[in-house]
Every structure is written in structure tokens, then in C-alpha cells.
Design brief:
By secondary structure, the protein is an alpha/beta fold. Helices cover 45% and strands 14% of the residues. The protein has a five-stranded parallel β-sheet, with helices on both faces.
Length: 441
């Protein structure tokens, strides 16, 4: 018998209503979370497993309808119940369209609340029972990673296959592609998610301290070792140790890592006692380890031990179709953080983002969106983007044209952007109006 209490999130800007709902729900045996705003509710939804969402509609800044639409899109499995003191036919239609399972008008009795909650859980159970399961389609959100491209799905397909075992994984990809996100997805989506996830950037640890930091040490093992201390291996016991930038590990550390992988045992610095370890190791690199092997800076036997499962994270330029989804994620994140509301991006600004090749990958995109949100007045528009992005022109081989033709097309684009205003167009082109008139002739 499942004795787990269901988690119910209550969202209402009226503190008295929140307290009343919480008392009723706790007396019914439910576990409750409270939020006085949609912003607070979004943080709870992100970090907590919620079984039912109960929300008011009329709230300042972001209203309950936006919360319903957002949760219906990103948490479709959660049933939603609306309570409101402003009932109307139009409100009811909007609520149902937004994915709510029921609508409760204030004031309501404890019995009415209980019946509405039981109805919501029952409808959700029936929906899950009658929803056909498909094997060829996956949601476009995987842990904190998002995407719909074939390149993204190749990555998540491998994550699905390794998440429930402790096979060693190496993740390769350019800087900024999200290698640590992939590692976290493997850990937190699998059956070992309740165990520790320890992330270590090998490049950030001085070479002479790497061995002590990873494997621990005994008091007196070296100058400054004033006590016995556990290393990252001991901290990750039963869980996952993520070794980022593994190519920067010293050769001495590489030797001990090899033994840890082969024999499942380690030795602290200054000790002769062997300790058994039960952890999963995920390594990551943006370097060419084969070249490092040729240069005798990386052990070949360690490379093959690490490469039991290999995941290649594609650069953003190879998954252009995911840019709009990633942009939405970052605009939502920083809109709530900096503006206390959900923002959107104009089609023109999104088009500019989609045609750029992103040498800094997802990290660069996130930084630019963060800046754009700060600079925006409610809608992220072209004016909020860095200047270098606005005038990017990317060519494919079949688009190569004479300079005169390209100049003509670009001038026309600028004129379209300024809605025919020649003075503004001349300023953008950094030429005077007379020169612009001559070129237009």
C-alpha cells in the first residue's frame, strides 16, 4: 500500500485564503506548499515534485491563467484546480482552455474542496490510463536540458540508456555546449538520483593538490595536512563523481583514477590502507584526448577505461532548431529573476538569434539573453540585442553573389528595418543621405 502523502501546491496572494486552504488540506492528509505569487510558485515547481496545483486567477503582476498555461506546457502531468472569487462565463472558458481540471468559486466548503481535489486526482489517473504509450517520441525537456532537434535527441537517447547503471561515461563537446547538464541529467533522471552528485573541475585544482582533493589524505601526509580529510571520491559515495576537463588531470592522478576504475578502490594520500568505492564516474572534456595521448600527456589505458560510453554534445550551430526553445527557457528564467514577470521575444529578434553561428554555444546564448532581458521594456526586441548580432550575414555556398547585389539587398533590409526612414538608414549604414540616395538610384 502506498502511504506517501500527495504534495499540493497552493498559490494565492491572499494570506488568509492560503492559511485556510493549508489547514483544510493538512486535515485531509495532504502535504502542502504555499506561494503568494506566481514567481514563487515557479521556483517550487522547478525544485519539488508536485501532485496537484491549486491556484487563484486574480493576482498582481503574473496572473493565475499564465501560471496554468505555463504549467500545462511544462508540467502536463500535474492536475490543476482553480479557486477564485471572481467567477464569470468568460473566466470559466479561459480556465478550461488553460488546462484546469475543475473550477471552485470562493467561498467554498471543506467538503466541496475535498470533492474537487478527489475529482482532479481521479481525472488525472484516468487520463494516464487511457493515454497510449509511444516508444518513438520523447518530451523535449530532459532534466534542465531542452531541445527538439535530432542532434539533441541522440544525446537524450544515450542518457536514457545509461541513467540506471553505473557504467563510466565520457562526454565530449566544445566549451559552452552543456556537458555538465548532460552529466546531471544522467544522475538525476536515474535510480541513483537520491545519492550525491559531486562536480569537480580538474582545471581549477592546482596540480600538486589534485590527488589530495580527489582521494583524501591523512593528518601529517604533507605540510598543511592538519587533520584527516575525505576527498571527492568519499563525498560521492553511492552516487556520481563528475570530472570536468579531465584532460588537465596530472599523470599521477591519472594513474590512481585508472586503479579506481579497474579495481573499484582508492588510497588516501599518506595511507597504505585501500578503500573500496562504489560510485559512477562521468568525465568530460573539450580537448582532443587522442592528441594528448600522442603527446604523452594523457594515459591511453585510462582513455579507454573512461570511454565505456561516449556522448558527443553537438555545438549550437548544429542544432539551430533548438535556439527558439533555449531562448524561451532563458527569457522565462531571467524575466522572473530580473523583471518579476514572464517576458516574450519579438519574431525579428528571434530571427537574428537563429541566423548567428554561436561560437560560444549555449553559454553565449544565455549570456546574451540575460543582457537583453535587463535592457528590455517588456518584450525582448532587436534594440535589446548586442550590435554585432544585428548585422550578422551568414552565407551558404549557393548564396554567394556579387558584392553589388549583396550591397543592394543589405541596403533594402536596413530600409525595411527603419520603415523607409532614410535618415535612420544612413545612420545605421554610416553614410550620409546623399550617398544613400545615389546608391538607391
Amino acid at each position: 500500500m502506498d502511504l506517501r502523502k500527495e504534495n499540493i501546491l497552493i498559490v494565492d496572494d491572499d494570506i488568509d485564503i492560503l492559511e485556510l486552504l493549508q489547514r483544510h488540506l493538512q486535515s485531509m492528509g495532504y502535504h502542502t506548499y504555499k506561494a503568494v505569487s506566481v514567481k514563487e510558485a515557479l521556483y517550487i515547481l522547478k525544485d519539488t515534485f508536485i501532485d496537484l496545483l491549486i491556484t487563484d486567477i486574480q493576482m498582481p503582476e503574473i496572473d493565475g491563467l499564465q501560471l496554468l498555461k505555463f504549467s500545462n506546457e511544462h508540467y502536463p502531468e500535474i492536475p490543476k484546480l482553480v479557486v477564485t472569487g471572481y467567477p464569470s462565463v468568460q473566466d470559466t472558458l479561459q480556465v478550461i482552455k488553460s488546462g484546469a481540471t475543475d473550477y471552485l468559486t470562493k467561498p467554498f466548503t471543506k467538503k466541496e474542496l475535498k470533492e474537487a481535489i478527489e475529482k482532479a486526482f481521479l481525472q488525472n489517473k484516468k487520463r494516464k490510463t487511457h493515454t497510449p504509450k509511444t516508444t518513438d517520441s520523447k518530451p523535449n525537456i530532459y532534466s534542465d536540458m531542452v531541445g527538439e532537434s535530432d542532434a539533441f535527441r541522440k544525446v537524450t537517447n544515450i542518457v536514457d540508456r545509461v541513467k540506471d547503471n553505473k557504467a563510466t561515461v565520457i562526454i565530449k563537446g566544445e566549451s559552452g555546449t552543456g556537458k555538465e547538464l548532460v552529466a546531471r541529467a544522467i544522475h538525476y533522471s536515474g535510480k541513483f538520483s537520491r545519492e550525491p552528485f559531486i562536480a569537480v573541475n580538474c582545471a581549477a585544482i592546482p596540480e600538486n593538490l589534485q590527488e589530495a582533493e580527489l582521494f583524501g589524505y591523512l593528518k601529517g601526509a604533507f605540510t598543511g595536512a592538519n587533520e584527516n580529510r575525505n576527498g571527492f571520491f568519499q563525498a560521492a559515495k553511492g552516487g556520481t563523481l563528475f570530472l570536468d576537463e579531465i584532460g588537465t588531470a596530472s599523470l599521477a592522478v591519472q594513474t590512481k583514477l585508472l586503479r579506481a576504475l579497474q579495481e573499484k578502490e582508492i588510497t588516501r594520500v599518506g595511507s597504505r590502507t585501500v578503500e573500496k568505492v562504489d560510485i559512477r564516474i562521468i568525465a568530460a572534456t573539450n580537448a582532443n584526448l587522442i592528441e594528448d595521448i600522442k603527446n604523452n600527456t594523457f594515459r591511453e589505458d585510462l582513455y579507454y577505461r573512461l570511454t565505456v560510453v561516449e556522448i558527443i554534445v553537438p555545438p549550437l550551430r548544429e542544432r539551430k532548431s533548438d535556439i527558439s526553445i533555449l531562448t524561451e527557457k532563458f527569457i522565462r528564467k531571467y524575466g522572473i529573476e530580473f523583471k518579476d514577470r514572464l517576458l516574450r521575444i519579438s519574431p525579428e529578434a528571434l530571427q537574428i538569434l537563429e541566423r548567428y553561428n554561436w561560437p560560444g554555444n549555449i553559454r553565449e546564448l544565455e549570456n546574451i539573453i540575460q543582457r537583453a532581458v535587463i535592457m528590455s521594456d517588456g518584450v525582448v526586441d532587436v534594440k535589446d540585442l548586442p550590435e554585432f548580432l544585428k548585422y550578422q550575414i551568414n552565407f551558404s555556398n549557393n548564396e554567394l553573389k556579387p558584392l553589388r547585389e549583396m550591397e543592394k539587398e543589405y541596403i533594402q533590409r536596413v530600409l525595411n528595418h527603419t520603415q523607409g526612414n532614410k535618415t535612420k538608414a544612413a545612420e545605421i549604414l554610416q553614410i550620409d543621405r546623399k550617398t544613400l540616395r545615389e546608391k538607391l538610384k
